User: What shape does this take?
Amino acid sequence: MRIKKNIATSENGFIFNPATGDSFSGNAMASEIMVAMKNGDTEAQIKQNIQDKYEVSAEQLNRDWDDWILQLKEANLLEL
Amino acid sequence: MQKLKYERPYIKKLNAGIMNKFGTRTDSQAFTHIDGVPVKSLIAEYGSPVFVLSEKQIRRNYRSAYRAFSTRYPKVQFAWSYKTNYLNAVCKIFHQEGSWAEVVSGFEYRKAIGNGVPGNKIIFNGPNKPKEDLLLAIENDSLIHIDHFEELTLLLKISENLTAKPRVAIRVNMDTGIYPSWDRFGFNYENGEAWNALTRIVNSGKLQLVGLHCHIGTYVLSTAAYAIAATKMADLAWSCKTQLKQTIEYLDLGGGFPSTNTLKGSYLPGADTVPSVDDFAEVITTTLLNSGLPKHDLPLLILETGRALIDDAGYLLGSVVANKRLGDGKRAMVVNFGVNILFTSFWYEHQISPAQDFTPHVENMTVYGPLCMNIDVVRESVNLPLLNPGDHVVVHKVGAYNMTQWMQFITQRPAIVLIDEQQQTHLIRTSETLNYVEEPETTPPHLIK
Assistant: This one.
């Protein structure tokens, strides 16, 4: 699961797709995960980092991760 | 090291175009307390979902409405509309404040008697009053508002064998310039049916015509409609006085005042658009005072306001069951209360507030109830923060009609709690049990093993 290479992200959650002109705003968690995904971190690494830093169960995080991937697909931000 | 508060990741597409003039969300803070009692402790003690009523708000609403009319007109009486909420605790609050009872069935009539309302302070409305109910009302000297000629004929027949004359009024329907025009109840003003009925009553000599009643609609947003109604009622009263030599003791303008809930399809929120009770009082009383009725002998003005007096005193507390992403990418949230207990979600866009702290991010979503039925939609489209399963929500302004029109369907009906003026909580209706639901059932012997 990789973010398209041309997607631009900012630290405060702004996401821009120069290919389509679409822009998105994300919450803090979204922006943190976007940065990690762009860095090439694996799903397991990202989840572990979040669990270390935030108060969330693995169960809840897995559930939200699935929804996150759905959102990225819907937004056309993932590599095919 | 203490861990940071987590929020699920969420992105939202930015659309260039016309800005939404209402912004994204109206709530800026969590709704954590009702009359000083924590939502969390209410759910812990009484379960989820649970209805909560504020006695303080009920009394405040009543006093404010009574003041609106009584400071403008010399003789005012409110009658609590039982069908709006006939929990005994609620009725008794209104009766303590001075309300009579307004009932529309034998069942409600007997509830009013059970609540200690004197018979002569019960107004008996409705299109179906069986003979035994009419006999009971006559025996108790209640005010019977006749709905149709069949009822009038039945009353005349009953009264043939009576020495005392039953006290009656007729319900009048009329064109007040609003749509829909409620012409299914009572006798029509414009086509002369109402006058015909009044003439028959007076000429019979067997019934005592004491009042005139109308109820022009529900959730009426036009004060002008009440001016028209009051004018026509005063005109009828004056005609009774001059032509039938019958003094009308009271004019009952019924109910129909809106609460501040937002109707589905409304462009603006209800709180910004509905006229206040003061606005209605001003129009009604001014019309009556200027109607030409003698100032020294004005009829008593009766109001049967229901919704406007109780809606904002009721809350429904519930919990988030699950979150979903729908086929079109839209978010959906499943909560543990459905349309079977929140009947008014068919009419209103109910405000739903999170009961715990949340971050500023919101997502547009559909809120579904727990019923395995496609119609179970609490809100079709609402912007809410990112809530997790187990989080609590508060639905506002649910005091009117939900606790009478609710259904035991798929799930059982929840408990109802009253918070008194001293912030003490009282369980005024327990949640239903399987035994309660099955109690009236019988199984034929051949089906019992």
